[in-house]
């Protein structure tokens, strides 16, 4: 919500592309650092050291946000700690009432996003297992693959095409799924590290269209005064959907490692049809 409020409506695609690129640069080196930890200290101790680095990084982020981040939504008064706690309790209740104030197109888009979430835990959790167990990638090669993947993601996320003209965000989403569908099939069939890097390099190009378009379209469809609340309920619904999808995907993976990714193909087809038939961009963007 802060990012959306801080960007001109006509440049949200560019703004989100930039905020997706620069913060990811340290992640290019993270897999290589973890690989060195594991090499010198063993898998368990090496991973613990890597997670401690992540803890320190998170604390650094919290301090920067505390000292440098400014509120973009003007309020009449500053809240005291006790009032803030009461306001938080109220906001939790209001979050689940926010569905009623969503526009029809925003509700449609949220439902599309929730369906698309089935794929996230499959690729985030089970992709590494599938790559090692089925494709045959070694653990050291996995670190190299993740490093290559981050570089591909970072290079591809500077897309600004979503800002250029009406309905471009919808077209970006359609193009994303046209790219992802054959790649998911190829992923199931591939059997080498080179193929894996090629596939996810192209997946990253799809991400470069999907992520800024999604973020910008949510901002375009949501009034500023309820943007934080709406984005909160979207985040909460995402967590519930991802948790359920993880359980289902785990069950399917135990039956057959290929099954979760076959389901992703069907999910992609469904989402593509929903975007084409139901989703419309607003003629007037919310500021």
Count the E strands: 0
The rounded Rg comes to: 20 Å
Please summarize the sheet with the most strands: none
Mean pLDDT: 84
What sort of overall outline do the alpha carbons produce when their principal axes are compared?
globular
Alpha plus pi helix count? 12
- Percent in strands: under 5%
Summarize the structure in words.
By secondary structure, the chain is mainly alpha-helical. It has twelve helices and no strands. The chain is globular, with a radius of gyration of 20 Å. The protein starts with a helix and ends in a 9-residue tail after the last helix.
Please supply descriptive tags for the structure shown above.
mainly alpha; 287 residues
How are the SSEs ordered, and which strands pair?
Layout lengths: L1 H5 L5 H10 L8 H12 L1 H26 L12 H17 L6 H13 L2 H17 L3 H18 L11 H22 L3 H29 L5 H29 L3 H20 L9
Helix pairs in contact: 2-10, 3-4, 3-8, 5-11, 6-11, 6-12, 7-11, 8-10, 9-10, 9-12
Brief rundown of the structure:
This protein is mostly helical. The chain has helices at residues 2-6, 12-21, 30-41, 43-68, 81-97, 104-116, 119-135, 139-156, 168-189, 193-221, 227-255, 259-278.
